[in-house]
Amino acid sequence: xxxxxxxxxxxxxxxxxxxxxxxxxxxxxxxxxxxxxxxxxxxxxxxxxxxxxxxxxxxxxxxxxxxxxxxxxxxxxxxxxxxxxxxxxxxxxxxxxxxxxxxxxxxxxxxxxxxxxxxxxxxxxxxxxxxxxxxxxxxxxxxxxxxxxxxxxxxxxxxxxxxxxxxxxxxxxxxxxxxxxxxxxxxxxxxxxxxxxxxxxxxxxxxxxxxxxx
Length: 214
Hints:
The protein is mainly α. The chain is 68% helix and 0% strand. It has eight helices and no strands. The two termini are 17 Å apart. The relative contact order is 0.16.
């Protein structure tokens, strides 16, 4: 069930809009990352190894900036809403993980054979697992629909992380350059095409009306 504090900040319609926008932008960033990684895999942009890691870092920094930018005058309340609600708390964990992954990849660029290289695949797997168990808010039907899509998203991110790890461990296998990118593209498409289902962020007993802003 959605934490009441969130309902002091947004109506159901606003929550749906912000959720959709967040999914779309993160999906767009993942699509850019996978496109750059593919170009590098086939031999282009070799002189810009920091390029897609920078976008991963940006993806992590974007989430909290987006979440708090429209609550400048009520940051304390927004922070409580983020920490106390299980869905928003997971979003914050994902943002932290992506930020760590982006930083680690930038370090990997400088130190090719360092331990930094295992962080990004581990983060992809961790975020995938979080999506597999991602809490949803709304009517029963909306929760079921949203949870199913997020399970697909979680599965492809876990697979992307596994194959990225395999590429790192077996650099002599040239074909391993591509599977993780393909699964990341699939994750990007799922994020970009995501729309909160009807009934999201609404109370079960009152599905025809949004929750009023308090």
